[in-house]
Each structure stands twice: as C-alpha cells, then as structure tokens.
Amino acid sequence: MNYQRIYGQILFISPKNDTMALANPETFSSIILGADTFYFSDKNYLRKITHYPAHNLLLKQTIKFIGKEKAGPYGSYSPVSSSNSNSTVTTDDQITQSIALNENQVYKFTNDFFISDAFNNFFKATKKNFYSLFSKHENEIKSFLTANTINFSKQADLEKLLTYIHGL
User: Fold this and answer.
1) How far is residue 90's CA from residue 139's CA, in Å, rounded to a whole number?
2) Which residue, 82, 110, 101, is CA-closest to 8?
3) Cα separation of 15 and 10, whole Å?
4) Distance (Å, rounded) from C-alpha 72 to C-alpha 96?
5) Centroid of chain to Cα 106
6) pTM to 2 decimals?
7) CA atoms of 166 and 168, how far apart (whole Å)
8) Residues whose CB is less than 8 angstroms from the CB of residue 55 and which lie 6 or more positions away in sequence, other chains included
9) What is the 3-state secondary structure (H, E, C) of the chain?
10) Which tens digits make up the pLDDT trace of 24-41?
11) What residues contact residue 107 under an 8 Å CB cut-off, 6+ apart?
C-alpha cells in the first residue's frame, strides 16, 4: 500500500498485479501504513503527525500539476517560451514519426494542516480553531502567541503550539 499524493488516494497492488485504489475509504476509522496513520475526512486523506491522547496535528499533502515549461535559449525553461511544440514530423516519403519535446512538467506541493478533537473531528489549523478547541486555555494561548511568532502554515510552529497547549 502507498499514499499517492497527486491523486490523493491510498493505492495497493491487487492479486492480479493491478494498481487499485481503496474503495469507500470513509468506512475505515483509520489506515496505518508502516509508521504513518491516515484518516479520511472530507474526501481527503490526513496523515497524523503528533500522537497525543486527544488532540493531534494532521497533514494533508498534495501535489498539483500547474503547467508545462518549454525549453528556451541557453538551457533555460519558461512557461511562455516561443519554442515549437510539434509532437510529430512527416518526412518527404510521408512517414510520420514522433519526436520528443524538450519540456518540464511543473507541480506544486501543498501542505494543509489540521487539528483533531478527541472524537477525530478535523479542523483547519487556524488561530480561531485553536481558540475554539481549547477554549478553557484561550487566555494562555493568546499570551503564548503574543510572545512567540507562530506561522500556521509551518509544521514546526504548529507542533510547538500544540506541545505548549498539552503542557497546560
């Protein structure tokens, strides 16, 4: 089994050696692949990062195709390069041959972080959701955020915040 980031699916090899995706992933409470635990929520797989008894940090990691870059002058690549993009050529004797294009495919990695409650409900890791989930400690969290710069898009910062909260 393997988590495929481009399609956002858990894939496995069937007995007939076909690559298959899990059917009805919402019926699983969790999926464990080696040391990684995945939860399925809102049509996405979330990988558990922290391992606290109740509230945890999770990561939705995807790769999205955003375009192609064609070869330009002096070995550079550009999405607006004016190079020819023909994929076939026909010679004088009317034989069509395929030619390889000199281009790069461009992908973007996206990391979205979530926090879970004690019942495995998942919420986007935002300041508002931290205040909501840990409302008993809202004043302490506000003080911590004032004293520390926390980027809610960085795993290390979110782990630091969650570690602080679990220490309260």
Assistant:
1) 73
2) 110
3) 16
4) 25
5) 16
6) 0.76
7) 6
8) 115, 116, 117, 118, 133, 134, 162, 165, 166
9) CEEECCCCEEEEECCCCCEEECCCHHHCCCEEECCEEEEEECCEEEEECCCCCCCCEEEEEEEEEEEEEEECHHHCEECCCCCCCCCEEECCCCCEEECCCCEEEEEEEEEEEEEECCCCCEEECCHHHHHHHCHHHHHHHHHHHHHCCCCCCCHHHHHHHHHHHHCC
10) 999 999 999 889 999 999
11) 6, 63, 64, 65, 66
| Residue 137, C-beta contacts closer than 8 angstroms, at least 6 positions apart | 165, 168
Tokens found for residue 166: 């679990």
Report pLDDT digits (tens) over 58-115: 999 988 888 877 776 666 666 664 545 555 555 555 666 555 567 778 888 899 999 9
- The sign of the CA dihedral 53, 31, 129, 165 is positive
Q: What contacts 153, CB < 8 A, 6 or more positions away?
A: 111, 113
| C-beta of residue 32 within 8 angstroms of C-beta of residue 78 | no
Q: Say if residues 46 and 54 touch (Cβ distance below 8 Å).
A: no
**The tokens of 139 are what?**
């004043």
